[in-house]
Design a protein that fits this description.
By secondary structure, the chain is mainly alpha-helical. The chain has one domain. 63% of the residues lie in helices and 3% in strands. The chain starts with a helix and ends with a helix.
């Protein structure tokens, strides 16, 4: 999967805090959309009210769950990015035409899902790089159409499956059972068990 926004985000200062500002979120999301659709011939329409609703739902959840970051800050970055992805799927602010061309089969098959995921992965990886001196590379699942087809079906039933989906793409252990509960994440539970 191509993440064209990643290089731009890593040049920004303090992405971890800036992405919590609506203006930065909206501008960087639109920039990612433009980069992902560049030279494809695909057209898009963004419902700004839905985009803002997704952002506000994400920020609300972030503030409610951020105390769990004390258990494992690195893992919380992944959870927060997955939660952002879930809110984008829940609110569906994009409508993208499928008529176009791209070397990326996932972009052609599920353009909205590909754009949402590329943005959230770009945010997660840039924060991990800035705050933890390195970020993982995407796993093979990021290019596997069967994985994307499966998650597309599951997200229709429960958008919170986007959280373990993002974990899968960056090599984290996914929590498919309780995806919306950060305290039930494998990395957090392991740290808590070590502290006990």
């Amino acid at each position: 999967m191509d993440l064209p926004i990643l290089s731009e985000l890593t040049r920004e200062e303090d992405v971890r805090h800036r992405v919590r500002e609506l203006r930065f979120f909206e501008e960087s999301f639109r920039r990612n959309l433009a980069l992902r659709l560049e030279n494809t011939g695909m057209t898009s329409r963004t419902d700004r009210a839905k985009l803002h609703a997704a952002f506000l739902a994400w920020v609300d959840n972030f503030h409610v769950t951020r105390e769990i970051a004390e258990a494992d800050r690195r893992d919380f970055v992944c959870y927060a990015a997955g939660r952002m992805l879930a809110e984008l799927f829940r609110h569906e602010p994009l409508l993208i035409s499928n008529s176009g061309k791209s070397a990326d089969p996932i972009l052609l098959e599920w353009p909205e899902g590909s754009v949402y995921a590329s943005y959230c992965l770009g945010v997660a990886l840039s924060v991990l790089k800035q705050d933890f001196n390195g970020a993982p590379t995407l796993t093979d699942a990021s290019r596997d159409r069967r994985v994307w087809q499966s998650i597309r079906e599951n997200i229709r039933d429960n958008p919170d499956y986007a959280i373990p989906f993002l974990d899968l793409l960056i090599g984290q252990t996914p929590n498919w059972t309780d995806p919306s509960l950060p305290e039930r994440r494998p990395a957090v539970r392991a740290k808590q068990a070590m502290a006990a």
